[in-house]
Amino acid sequence: MANETRGFTSNIGAILAAAGGAVGLGNIWRYPYMLGQNGGGAFLLVNMFFVLMIGIPLMMSEFVIGRRTQSNVVGAYRKMSPDHKGWTVLGYFGIIAAVLIYAFYSVVAGWTLNYIVMASTGHLSGLEPAEVSEAFSAFTSHSFWPVLCQLLFLALTALVITFGVQKGIEKVSKILMPVLFILLLLMCVRSLTLPAASEGLSFLFRPDFSKLTGQGVLGALGQSFFSLSLGMGAMVTYGSYIRKEDSLFKTSLWISICDLMVAILAGVVIFPAVFSFGMDPAGGPQLVYVVLPNVFNSMPMGGVFAAIFFLLLGIAALTSTISLQEIVVAFTVEELHWSRRKSSIISMLVVFFIGVFCALSFGVLKDATIFGHTVFEFFDMITASYLMPIGALAMTIFLGWFFPKVEIKDEITNGGTLKGKLFELYYFILRYVAPLALLVILISGIVG
Ligand code: TRP
């Protein structure tokens, strides 16, 4: 493929596509409940610190690998290390991590489709709290509907992917990301005009460090990697589509700002509402599917806002599933020389085949456990606690210790045309701080 047609057509396209990959269920579904369980604002501050200090340098590093080689994640590591083919394993590692994440992520993404339909047809309205939670369990434990929703979501993603990087990924991101922001702001306005808005906001913004444990700090660190989609080659792949004249630092900075902003705005939507209607902010993973429908039920025009909210969640999930599948498709197109269409369909079927086990692990396969976890929990855990930190750690060691510094500097400064004032700080983080932080996550995951 010729280079000029390979990637994104503009910097804003690159930022929106990569921010779309980063902004996802992690921001709207996972972040609020982790924050709720870990002292609100304290978690927020710690997470912000990690995003800025470690997340951005790691994202830049993945971009360097991708853009330098103009390749999918496997090709990238192969080209970066011509004398030591062993590093190519890292690329395959990324592909496997992406498939496993996609397998369980698409389950929760599929749920949004059901909730969009339920909310917009009024099926969530007027239910008692106990009924809302029963409806959630009844749906997620069903053997057909969640699987169908998952398949639909996979198909929707594959459809975008078949249109290619510019006409599919970039175009869709340029439309959906602004829509996501607008919907989110609309929801914020609704939430901020609720009676106990200030209570919710002070929970979100006033840090209570007494509630933040060591585990909470690690959670904030892990969340920053998960949320920025680091450690599995997503940003290597998208990095290969960034134009040579764009600044990798500014691009990473903007993506991270978008990602943080969506997480914070999701908190602004959720906590005032949760407090206004006397729900538990530490409601756990069920927060958005069980707690929020109750909240919507008790507000005027709640049905409309519920539908908007789940639509927003679905959009956030879709731009992420696109970037997950693109990791695999870029690989099969460039390394196996399959067509884009064939790649999309086959990779979708593979993910579906594995993902079904995740979808069913809330129902018929509830007792089919691996080391005491359901298949869904197991995939979530091995990817977030092991594969992601291992992948990112190996990447920092490769780039920081085995790849020439001058070449990294050349890529980050666009061949010397940018000043790169912070380069030394970046390089220090790449070599020492990030590997250490990743090692701590990894060890605590193994011990805890
Ligand atoms: N960042 C995504 C979210 O917050 C989840 C995610 C993790 C991801 N790793 C990824 C998405 C790789 C795309 C590619 O929901």
H/E element order: HHHHHHHHHHHHHHHHHH
Residues in helices, as a percent range:
over 70%
- Gyration radius, to the nearest Å? 21 Å
Structural class: mainly alpha
Mean pLDDT equals 93
Low-confidence stretches: none
What's the overall geometry? globular
Ligand identities: tryptophan
Provide keyphrases for this structure.
mainly alpha; binds tryptophan; 448 residues; 75% helix
Task: Describe the model.
The longest helix has 34 residues, at 302-335. It is globular and about 65 Å long. It is mainly α and 448 residues long. The model has no long low-confidence stretch (mean pLDDT 93). 75% of the residues lie in helices and 0% in strands. It is built from 18 helices and no strands. It binds tryptophan. Tryptophan binds next to helix 1, helix 2, helix 10 and helix 14.
Lay out the secondary structure:
Layout lengths: L10 H12 L2 H13 L3 H29 L3 H8 L7 H33 L8 H12 L4 H18 L1 H29 L4 H9 L8 H14 L6 H6 L8 H29 L10 H11 L4 H34 L4 H20 L15 H27 L3 H8 L10 H25 L1
Bound molecules: tryptophan.
